[in-house]
Specification:
The structure holds 2 protein chains of 2 kinds. Chain A is mostly helical. Helices cover 82% and strands 0% of the residues of chain A. Classes of the chains: A mainly alpha, B alpha/beta.
Chain lengths: 214, 230
């Protein structure tokens, strides 16, 4: 029988063929392009692209969760074993995209930063900050897609609200200012916070899907 | 035991679809689920497949199930891509497709296949899977004669390797001798342990009470017993 890894691979392939990744990819490219058109130090660039990482990965996670109809989802659910396991597999697929998007963004930010002197520690912190945004986005997106929330409109509203709640409170904005000022520790702290938020959201969604029939 | 349901109740909102269903599916067994539209057949299959979490009771047994739902939107991938990406075992499925009389190109997208050929791919995939439980809803839906004949052959092959098969099929007019029929009536499951048991003939009628009483008396004179429903 198919392994969970096979289902992750299949999910990414299905997303690729569906072309539903195009709109979030355009948003990502436009945002990063605007930042890089007038680049600053790597830390400032990384802070400027942090929100788009969260937004785009949230969008992609919702797209991955809603990529098929109920019948196809049931086929996939039976294959992996349960609705909650399918949710975790699809979160893992979004997580794989998150790592790719973070690496791509970090490389671009480092390459175009002004001035172009960069320590390995600062490079890793840039990647960590991009990953923090992506992980938060994946966590939010994976918690609000089907079958947790069936209606796309409701998903959109809840996802936007959750992104606002994550991106705007003082602890997060304070840490972003720290990163902007050159602190690498703040980037890792943000990654830790984002990971905890994502774990809590995905865990709750997994419990919900285990409990309620659709 | 491949999978067992213990006192499983499934509810959608206020509607109870399955009530305290207990079933024990053993290796190599073959089950046909029968019942009227809306009686809960599909939900029973979904519960067996682990797709539908019960509100009470437990499902125990295999984790991974080869499940063919009655309705699904074909994915945009090609058949070959599905087989190589998902299953890692293309050859057995191709052989099963030959048995089912599949007429199509494996390089084409699922969406470009006819409905019947799409169903044949799903059936071939399920019946050649390594899972010990194969659950198929509306098994003969969309199949031509060659497909129906091939389906029997594949079911026999899957049972030979120890897989339990559970099928719901509104189009089946006769339960095969080796099948264990499961009847679903308003969410309550009745399992006949042996196909050799005498069948129950259910007559449903509506009309004035006097007619019902007369019909009941005539039936009793013919030697039939009355089975009361709730």
């Amino acid at each position: 029988m198919m392994s969970d890894l096979g289902m992750v691979r299949f999910t990414i392939r299905l997303l690729g063929r569906s072309m539903r990744w195009v709109a979030p990819a355009i948003l990502w490219a436009a945002w990063v392009g605007v930042v890089l058109a007038n680049p600053g130090p790597t830390g400032s660039n990384a802070v400027a692209t942090f929100p788009v990482q969260a937004i785009v990965l949230c969008w992609l996670a919702v797209t991955i969760g809603n990529i098929d109809d109920d019948g196809h989802r049931e086929l996939c659910t039976a294959t992996v074993g349960s609705p909650s396991r399918l949710l975790l597999v699809r979160t893992a697929a979004a997580g794989a995209l998150a790592v790719m998007a973070s690496a791509l963004a970090a490389l671009a930010l480092i390459e175009f930063s002004v001035p172009r002197s960069l320590s390995p520690g600062a490079g890793a912190a840039t990647f960590a900050l991009q990953l923090a945004g992506c992980v938060a986005g994946v966590g939010i997106g994976s918690a609000v897609h089907r079958p947790t929330i069936r209606h796309v409109g409701v998903t959109l509203i809840v996802a936007l609200a959750a992104l606002l709640v994550f991106l705007t409170p003082p602890p997060v904005t304070h840490l972003l200012r720290e990163v902007d000022g050159g602190s690498t520790g703040a980037a890792y702290l943000l990654l830790g916070i984002a990971s905890l938020v994502a774990l809590a959201l995905v865990g709750s969604a997994s419990m919900l899907t285990r409990r309620f029939a659709r | 035991m491949v999978v067992a349901l213990q006192e499983v109740t499934v509810r959608f909102g206020a509607v109870v679809v399955l009530r305290k269903v207990s079933l024990d599916i053993t290796s190599g067994s073959y089950w046909e689920v029968r019942g009227a539209n809306g009686s809960g057949k599909t939900t029973l299959l979904r519960a067996l497949a682990g797709v539908c979490p019960p509100v009470s009771g437990r499902r125990e047994g295999v984790r991974s199930v080869a499940f063919v739902p009655a309705l699904l939107d074909p994915p945009s991938l090609s058949v070959g891509s599905w087989l190589s990406a998902v299953r890692d075992r293309r050859k057995p499925v191709e052989e099963a497709l030959d048995v089912l009389g599949f007429q199509g190109d494996l390089g084409r997208s699922f969406r470009r296949l006819s409905f019947g050929n799409f169903r044949k791919v799903l059936l071939a995939d399920a019946l050649t899977s390594m899972s010990n439980l194969v659950v198929i809803d509306e098994a003969r839906e969309g199949l031509d004669d060659a497909g129906i004949e091939g389906l029997g052959e594949l079911v026999a092959g899957a049972r030979d390797r120890g897989a339990a098969i559970v099928i719901a099929d509104q189009g089946a007019h006769r339960v095969p001798d080796h099948a264990l029929p499961v009847s679903v009536l308003d969410g309550v499951v009745d399992v006949r342990r042996s196909a050799a048991e005498a069948p129950v003939v259910t007559i449903t009628f509506s009309g004035p009470a006097a007619s019902a009483t007369r019909l009941e008396r005539d039936a009793a004179n013919l030697g039939f017993n009355r089975v009361d429903d709730e």
